[in-house]
Design goal:
The chain has 21 helices and no strands. By secondary structure, it is mainly alpha-helical. The protein is globular.
């Protein structure tokens, strides 16, 4: 037994009997241990890992012998480099992110062969469904951050407990929303088709059907899709848990197998037994349920082995809701920003709106890559925050910043060089294509700032700074809205082509630049900054892994 262990096991009477020099050494060791505990608890209140978890981790650090600390440091040094870690998380995430929209496009093509009124009805219903899914993404993001921080603190039991709470929250939200939409879904669809949807989508969908012609199909498809809503949200939460544990391969496999199964089952239901548009909704609901059950089963076994109860906990569910609430508010602000921009695009012309939508559709493709990098950032930052490894965190932030800027420069250069051909993939009308090209180039110029903003989104979500992100999102919205109002006043003096380019500059330029600035401020310069503290003491970080 070394001297540190001997001191730990000494009785109080033995300590009091020590010579003065040895007593000073003992007191210094106790003081160091207390400093370790205090530094481990110095994270921002918004950080999602609770204080008991951090206390346990810091106590483990303070009890660790010098020999074991050296061993831990050697283990840490043997971890893969940051680049390998980022790629190992981002590449499977990118695959899973691409798989779903790719196969949903195939599903839509199946429905398209049933007739224009059916595809129009499905498109209308999908606006409601996609809005629900988009607003619920916090279930994945907040869960990833919480789980990663707990795992970084060495508390796997707490991580799995948080995952169980998140999945129960997802189930409650999904069942509640499905019930609400079952009651008000049809009136909501009717309001949409006679209002905003008729304005926003007519130029692209060539809307020739009256509301009465498409309403039965829209309502039928919506209700056929509702049984799978809760399952889809549970899958989101389960995916967040796995990502927080640095497992992005399992979600990739689940997404790939689910997508293939979805295509086959939908083809059978739509054409094989002639269920038509309802077949697509039923098939997707069945596959969503299978995916949710599979992921829950994968997570349930190790959770039980760790002594985690699978029963719902009101306190735990409430905690998950509290952590995810700010990210939900952030999603609302972002969605309002883009909906308002679409309204501004309607002031240009039919062709102008079409060109705007073409540029925005092209913009979504590289965002898959940026999203995957941001999700990798969530996990890695969460681990670093949870472990107390400030040195690794500082290096990680610098690396991710360079990744963000570098990815943005490369994507921007490729987008600009391919700008004459990109619109052709989305629209056949020559006038719309030519109108979109300058806007594509404008968008390309701002890709470095966009990429940086996305990467820092992931950093701040991983750090548990949801409240700060929500405030920043509404600040960014407050800057964008007056700019869009000014655009509507300026519109009569601009050509259609120039108007599209200016509007894209406001949305993917001004708006995303302000997001990059606010995210950078929160990350690097905020007085309440928890990521890079003023005091860079690394006492607890040496044994944090």
């Amino acid at each position: 037994m070394d001297s540190a262990d001997q001191r730990k096991d000494m009785s109080q009477s033995q300590i009091e009997g020590l010579p003065e020099s040895q007593l000073a050494i003992h007191n210094q060791a106790a003081s160091t241990a207390q400093e370790c505990r205090e530094q481990a608890l110095s994270t921002d209140k918004s950080t999602s890992v609770d204080k008991p978890a951090l206390t346990d981790a810091s106590e483990d650090i303070s009890r660790t012998s010098p020999a074991k600390r050296d061993e831990s440091a050697q283990t840490h040094s043997k971890q893969p480099g940051l680049t390998r870690q980022i790629l190992s998380l981002a590449i499977p995430t990118l695959g899973a992110t691409i798989a779903q929209p790719l196969f949903l496009t195939i599903d839509s093509a199946m429905v398209g062969h049933l007739g224009a009124e059916k595809i129009a009805g499905m498109s209308l219903a999908m606006i409601v469904i996609n809005t629900v899914y988009g607003m619920s993404i916090f279930l994945a993001y907040s869960t990833t951050a919480e789980t990663a921080q707990a795992m970084g603190a060495g508390n796997e039991r707490r991580a799995r407990e948080l995952g169980v709470h998140a999945m129960w929250l997802a189930a409650i939200i999904g069942i509640t929303l499905a019930g609400v939409l079952a009651l008000i879904g049809t009136p909501l669809l009717r309001a949409l088709v006679t209002g905003l949807v008729a304005i926003f989508t007519k130029p692209l969908l060539v809307w020739t059907q009256t509301p009465e012609e498409i309403m039965p199909y829209a309502s039928s498809f919506l209700h056929a899709s509702l049984p799978g809503l809760a399952a889809s949200l549970i899958t989101m939460a389960a995916t967040g848990v796995l990502r927080g544990m640095k497992d992005t391969t399992t979600p990739l496999i689940a997404a790939g197998v689910g997508a293939l199964l979805n295509v086959g089952l939908n083809a059978f239901l739509i054409y094989g037994i002639n269920l038509g548009i309802d077949g697509r909704g039923i098939g997707t609901s069945i596959v969503s349920t299978i995916m949710a059950i599979s992921l829950v089963a994968i997570l349930a076994r190790p959770a039980r082995a760790a002594g985690v109860s699978l029963r719902p906990s009101l306190t735990g569910i409430r905690q998950s809701a509290r952590v995810g609430g700010p990210l939900l508010a952030r999603s609302v602000a972002i969605r309002l920003a883009f909906l308002t921009s679409i309204w501004s695009a309607t002031t240009i012309s039919v062709n102008g709106l079409a060109a705007y939508q073409v540029v925005m559709s092209a913009w979504q493709i590289p965002l898959f890559l940026l999203d995957s990098l941001a999700i990798a950032s969530q996990t890695l930052v969460g681990f670093a925050i949870g472990s107390g490894d400030r040195s690794q965190l500082r290096t990680l932030l610098r690396t991710l910043s360079w990744w963000g800027i570098g990815a943005g420069v490369i994507i921007g250069a490729l987008t600009a060089s391919l700008s004459p051909w990109i619109p052709s993939f989305f629209v056949s009308e020559a006038v719309v294509r030519h109108m979109a090209i300058p806007a594509v180039i404008v968008n390309a110029v701002f890709f470095p700032a966009q990429s940086h903003a996305f990467l820092l989104d992931g950093v701040l979500i991983g750090a548990g700074r949801g409240a700060s992100l929500a405030k920043a999102a509404f600040l960014n919205l407050a800057i964008l809205l007056p700019a869009l109002w000014g655009f509507t006043l300026l519109r009569p003096y601009l050509s259609e082509t120039a108007a599209v380019a200016v509007l894209i500059g406001l949305v993917t330029g001004l708006y995303m630049v302000t997001r990059a600035i606010t995210n950078s401020w929160i990350t690097w310069f905020s007085p309440r900054n928890v990521l890079i503290p003023r005091n860079d003491s690394l006492a607890p970080s040496q044994a944090a892994v």
